[in-house]
Structure prediction request, 100 residues.
Amino acid sequence: MDKTGCASFEVWTRGRLQNSQHDAKDRDSTNDKVEPVGRGTPFSTGSIRVDGEKQAVVDAQTLTWLGSSEATETYYIVVKNKTHAACNYTLSIRGPDVSF
Prediction:
C-alpha cells in the first residue's frame, strides 16, 4: 500500500459468511458474531538484536496471510480502506493450487 496503515484485508470462506461463530470472550453465547478466517498482518522481515534483546522487524506496508484447507475451499478477500482518502494497494495471491 502506498501509505502505511491505509488499508487492511480479511479472508473469508462461504461457510464463515453464512454461519456465526462463538466468541470465547463473550459469556453470552446468543451474541455470536461472524469472524473472518484470517486478517492481513504486517510482513515479518526477520529480527535484530537491540540492547541484547531480539526484536522483530516488520514491513508495515506489506500485509500477509498464510493459510490452507484440507478440502477444496474458496477464499474471499475483503480489502478495506481505513482512511477518508484514496489508498493504492497491490493484491497478490499465490500458491501451488491457486486458481482464478
About this structure: The first helix runs from residue 14 to 18. The chain has a mean pLDDT of 84. Residues 7-81 form one domain. The CA atoms of residues 43 and 62 lie 6 Å apart.
